[in-house]
Amino acid sequence: AAVAAEARFISSAKGKGLFATKNIRKGETVFVERPVVSSQFLWNALYNYRACDHCLRALETAEENAQRLLGKSSLVLPHPEQCSIRKDLHQQCPRCQVTYCSAECKQAALEQYHQVLCLGPSRDDPTHPLNKLQEAWRNMHYPPETSSIMLMARMVATVKQAKDKEWWIKAFSQFCNKTANEEEEIVHKLLGDKFKGQLELLRLLFTEALYDEHLSRWFTPEGFRSLFALVGTNGQGIGTSSLSQWVHACDALDLPMLQREELDAFIDQLYKDIEKESGEFLNCEGSGLYVLQSCCNHSCIPNAETSFPENNFLLHLTALEDIEAGEEICISYLDCCQRERSRHSRNKILRENYLFTCSCPKCLAQADDADVTSDEEEEGEGETDDAELEDEMTDV
């Protein structure tokens, strides 16, 4: 599909932005983008959220998905034909048994990075350097997850396997870069108080597992910190779910009124029961680096939003308003609840997680508001301190 947007340099303070190249109507898809690299989160995979190792498509049927999230193997979903999962197409790597949703994904992974990262028979060997790296990461970065060391491992593996290594190094270098001080803040955010010691441990394990002389800079203390900050700043959360796909398909069914009411009530109750059992962790989750999406600046009144309607890593950017040719396309880095809060609270989250103060029309209009949070906000303050480091996990 044609892309209705292009990245342009705005200023050294703001960096790049994304601008409409034609008039875009509300509800229109601005573009669909495939990530340069992506990876499922490690705890998410450990807890049996089964996703394609390449594109993150959910691998369980909607019914299996609901049964696991409910902890109830007897649950039966109506309209099973509305589930889009095709188990007959699933394939495994013959050496290490990771699962893919299709032969195409298996091949794409093998061609891009999997030859380097395939654990073969060492898949369950805790002393294998890659397993040591993953274990160390899990012990530093508990759910809710916002990033994965394996995203960086796939970047290295991609360059290692590439015939044209310079092309890939250049592709990764176009993502937003930060100064040394800013990088430290981002790494601090990802790793917490002990970040210097932890970062050094990760760097040593990363080097043991993946060192390559073409990329020697990425393995130095400064280069590794930059790589870490690049992933922390540009990583976009990806969420997929066969259950939500099934729900969307059920919503579109043309049913007699009584059946429609019954089905809606069943789905509402199902989600309530799942929330009691599994909390907010409904999706297969990971993150990826997207060239165009990473150029989108934040606004507290965004005119576009990202989503993953194809149940895989393909990101859809959709217009929330009519956007005129030449107008900047902005998304929100805050979730709906955070967007409703005072300017002071919104900017506290943005400064802590993205290192900038927002000057969107909404923030400018509220510039004279007192710099104190209201009482209700004070009570909720604690919750946002871990506000997603990446763009909000997108609802699918």
What is shown here, in short?
InterPro entries: SET_dom, SET_dom_sf, SMYD5_SET. The protein has 396 residues and is α+β, with helices and mostly antiparallel strands.
Structural topology:
Layout: E1 5-11, E2 15-20, E3 29-33, E4 37-40, H1 42-46, H2 62-70, E5 91-92, E6 99-100, H3 103-117, H4 129-140, H5 149-161, H6 165-173, H7 180-191, H8 195-210, H9 221-234, E7 236-240, H10 242-251, H11 257-278, E8 284-289, E9 297-298, E10 304-307, E11 315-319, E12 328-331, H12 336-339, H13 343-354, H14 361-365, H15 375-380
Parallel strand pairs: 9-12
Antiparallel strand pairs: 1-2, 2-12, 3-11, 4-8, 5-6, 7-8, 10-11
Helix pairs in contact: 2-10, 3-5, 4-8, 5-6, 7-8, 7-9
Pfam families: SET
Keywords: Cytoplasm, Metal-binding, Methyltransferase, S-adenosyl-L-methionine, Transferase, Zinc, Zinc-finger
Protein name: Protein-lysine N-trimethyltransferase SMYD5
In whole angstroms, how far apart are the ends? 21 Å
State the helix count.
15
Please compute the radius of gyration using only Cα atoms: 22 Å
Helix-and-strand structural type: alpha+beta
DSSP E strands, number? 12
Q: List segments where confidence is low: pLDDT < 50 over at least 5 consecutive residues.
A: 374-396
Percent range of helical residues: 40-55%
Mean pLDDT over all positions: 89
Outline: globular
Protein name: Protein-lysine N-trimethyltransferase SMYD5
EC number: 2.1.1.359, 2.1.1.372
Region (Disordered): 370-396
GO cellular component, one term: cytoplasm
Plain-language structure description:
There is one protein chain. The protein has about 400 residues and is of the alpha+beta class. Among the domains are: about 60-235, no CATH class; about 240-275, no CATH class. Helix content is about 40%, strand content about 15%. The protein is built from 15 helices and twelve strands. The strands form four sheets. The chain has a four-stranded mixed sheet with strand order 1-2-12-9, with no helix packed on it. α3 (about 105-115) crosses α5 (about 150-160) and α4 runs antiparallel to α8. The two termini are about 20 Å apart.
